[in-house]
Amino acid sequence: MNDHATAPSRAEHQARMADYLKAGEARARAIGNKGPVRFGADGKLHEDIVEAYWRHGFYIFEGVVGATEIDELRADAMTMLERAPATPGGKLDAKGRPAMGRDWAREPYTFIKPLSDPWGATDKLNGRHPTKMAEAKADGDAPEHVVFLMYGMCMGMPAGLRVYGHPHLLAIAESINGADFVPYNDAIFVKQPGVGGSVSWHQDGVTHWNAPDWDQGSHGFNFQVQLYPTTAANCLWVIPGSHKLGRIDIKKLVADNGGDDRLPDAVPLICNAGDVTIVNRQMLHGSFANSSPDIRISLTFGFHRRRSVLGAKAGLSMTTQNVVYDEARIFERAAVIPVAIDARRKHFPAETPFRYQPFAGREDEFRHTPEVMDRWIKDYNTKDLAI
């Protein structure tokens, strides 16, 4: 939309977005599509919610994560953020301590220029962000670079590993993708006040668009656990029903809107802290630069149907290329789930743990111990299952 060097100010960006945000909030209220988690007598996600998810491609589960757990997640996320390198690729954090993850196989931090769009109109992530969002200049006291994404929450955040084993979230995954569901990846989106970057309009799916058995669930879904209230200014926006349309010509869609990134049918996923969104990975979605004064931190992790992954080739440039996902690879990445379930069981003993069927009868091999953490959790995200 603009060259970042000549971009408008943060205040001008806020003014540009004001009417659009209000209109989006009205569209979101009209759709609704939110409520507490409800299960049927069979233990599966209530059929009304399942129907709403498949109709719109998203749902907002209200109040899934309690206040005490949100406090624990916030503390761990802030620790991870504070332990980021003081400069991109650096070895020390801002306090001179060794930065987190210097010995991890995958770099846990992505930095960007404040209020920028790092992926739009580039070939990054297989070029799936073909248009650029409007960028803005941050205020004069903003840092040169800010953390945009953090990876490896199951290593860097004890509470992150526990929420990965949340029984309601895993039961939802089972209801949508079957009892043999498998994980995708996880990432923490960080939209710091007045400096957070944008994510240009895109669809997440890569590999199955032309498959003869393609359908609206072929590329799985993502959860986002919201650690703070989200607003129209900093949250994820989606175009309802777009998960059913196949691969969308995003360039044409934006061009037909006069080149404006403010697409008219999009709705913001406005949440309270502790709410969890589920978004189909085939949905057209994105987010705008966070010129607002409100922070957003979203723990994002996804799940697939096993049949979509087994035999598929690695589909994103962030994963090892030319890898075909066989049973052994799926087992290695899925092993995070029973470890997370056990970590949660120990921390929340009054809660009924989820039983993950692919590991039923083998739970004792995946208890939350230092040895198991070293074997199955260390560098687990080098084995992500991206399609």
Structure description:
The protein has 387 residues and is α+β, with helices and mostly antiparallel strands. It has a single domain, classed as q2cbj1_9rhob like domain (Jelly Rolls), CATH 2.60.120.620. It has helices spanning 10-31, 47-56, 67-82, 153-156, 158-164, 167-177, 250-256, 306-309, 327-334, 336-347, 370-377, and strands spanning 34-35, 58-61, 109-112, 146-150, 182-191, 199-202, 221-226, 237-238, 267-268, 276-280, 285-287, 296-304. The strands form 2 sheets. Strands 1-2-10-7-12-5-4-3 form an 8-stranded mixed β-sheet. A 4-stranded antiparallel β-sheet has the order 6-11-8-9. β1 (34-35), α2 and β2 form a beta-alpha-beta unit. α3 (67-82) crosses α5 (158-164) and α5 (158-164) packs across α10. The radius of gyration is 20 Å and the shape is globular. The model has no long low-confidence stretch (mean pLDDT 95).
Biggest beta sheet summary: 8 strands, mixed
Give the tally of structural domains.
1
Terminal-residue CA separation: 29 Å
Strands of the widest sheet, in order across it, are 1-2-10-7-12-5-4-3
Order of helices and strands: HEHEHEEHHHEEEEHEEEEHHHH
* Separate helix tally: 11
CATH top level?
Mainly Beta
Give the percentage of residues in beta strands: 5-15%
User: What's the architecture in CATH terms?
Assistant: Sandwich
Q: Would you tell me the structural class of the helices and strands? A: alpha+beta
State the low-pLDDT regions, or none: none
Compute the number of strand runs.
12
Shape type: globular
Q: What labels describe this entry?
A:
single chain; 14% strand; alpha+beta; globular; 12 strands; 387 residues; 4-stranded antiparallel beta sheet; Jelly Rolls
